[in-house]
Write a structure and sequence with these properties.
Blueprint (H helix, E strand, L loop, with lengths): L7 E5 L14 E6 L2 H4 L6 E3 L12 E7 L9 H12 E10 L8 E3 L6 E3 L19 E15 L2 H9 L21 H4 L7 H10 L1 E13 L1
Parallel strand pairs: 1-2, 1-4, 2-3, 4-5
Antiparallel strand pairs: 5-9, 6-7, 8-9
Length: about 220
């Protein structure tokens, strides 16, 4: 989805460079808050925040934000959207979870009782609300990407809460007390579902692609 004319690319929230390391543009730059993650970025990189980019207006032909926007809290997200639009001269390319029902992934920390999204997602996106996301840009291309996976429905979430069930917070870190919750193998918790439970999940859950990829062009 990267336009052929692209000569310079900035990836915000690039992590260890899974994407920016593979971009073939003449000039690339990756930024992230994690200095340790940036050690694996093969090209130029900078430790900084997406809501305060140290670049001139229109500095890069394309700005990429993959699996970033859904994590940003209110206030920070709006600043980030503005900054991304400011430094992109031609295009913006993003990927976000596809029509995520946030309540289905809310869990409770057994240490402090804090309720939080297991992936710390703050908002949900759909093809509809991706339109008009960046001021001065128009949505020109949007795809569902990734294999189709089962999603908990609102009805299933309601039933689980009614019987006191909640998704175990395996492999997550509580944002309140920073407790790290062990994987099932370490905790000894059984994970297998009975055939009946599997059939219930099959009937109650819809199957959708996990992600949306959207390309924007400056108007």
């Amino acid at each position: 989805m990267i336009p052929e004319k692209t000569r310079s690319v900035l990836e915000v929230g690039c992590g260890a460079g899974l994407i920016v390391n593979r971009v073939t543009a003449a000039e690339t730059m990756g930024i992230d808050l994690s200095a340790s993650a940036l050690r694996d970025v093969t090209g130029p990189s900078l430790q900084c925040s997406v809501e305060d980019l140290p670049f001139d207006d229109g500095r890069y032909d394309l700005v990429i934000a993959s699996e970033v926007l859904e994590h940003l809290p209110t206030g920070v997200c709006e600043l980030a959207l503005s900054e991304i639009a400011r430094v992109a001269s031609s295009n913006i390319l993003i990927s976000v979870p596809n029509r995520e029902y946030l309540a289905a992934s809310v869990t409770k920390c057994p240490a402090c009782g804090c309720r939080y999204h297991r992936n710390l997602h703050q908002r949900s996106y759909s093809p509809k609300n991706l339109k008009g996301l960046f001021e001065g840009f128009v949505l020109t291309d949007c795809h569902e990407i990734g294999e189709k996976e089962p999603r908990r429905s609102m009805f299933e979430v309601f039933l689980r809460r009614a019987v006191g069930a909640s998704a175990p917070p395996w492999g997550t870190v509580c944002p309140n007390c920073m407790a790290v919750h062990d994987a099932p193998e370490a905790s000894g918790t059984a994970t297998g579902a009975t055939p009946r439970e599997g059939e219930v999940k099959r009937l109650l859950r819809r199957h959708e692609a996990s992600w949306l990829a959207a390309l924007y062009e400056r108007t």
